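pinging the channel bc i need a second pair of eyes. not urgent but kinda urgent?? the chain im working w is below, pasted from the shared doc
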Amino acid sequence: MIRAAICDDNEFDLSRLHGALENCGTPLKITVYDSGETLLWDVETERAHFDLYLLDIYLDGSNPAGISGMEVARRIRAMDERAVLIFVTVSQDFYREAFDVYALYYLVKPVEQEAVNALIKRAAAGLQQQRELSLPVTYRGRTCVLRYENIEYISSSNHTICFHLQDGEE
């Protein structure tokens, strides 16, 4: 199942996108956020991990000091280079910045169900390909995903498996 986060400060747009995702035909576990700060707090404190992020660029439109969806995307990308980022916005002004964070897609509101269906199908195919090349490991209640290409070797001692990664981490 794909874990998806929607972040939009407009309640109507958030509800509409949530409904479109529920009706896309792909099993999703959807979590909604009405601010970038809340989403980042959950992700940065490891309370939540998502495969797919749908972000409005103009977050906290009523609060000039609020964080933008583009900044949320930059911070997520810094933590997770494989996350699927999708912008859902009213403006076409940020295409260039979307490429900088390697966004999969850029939807302009109002979103249509057919566009969401095609987008989720494309994202699901890419995520499936990633999962086939990685190994989820759970230790002390925390799950991390190891890419096969990052594993140098695996050792075992006293019923404990140790993954030795190319960057020296164990």
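so The first strand starts at residue 2 and ends at 7. and The first helix runs from residue 11 to 22. — does that match what u expected or am i reading it wrong
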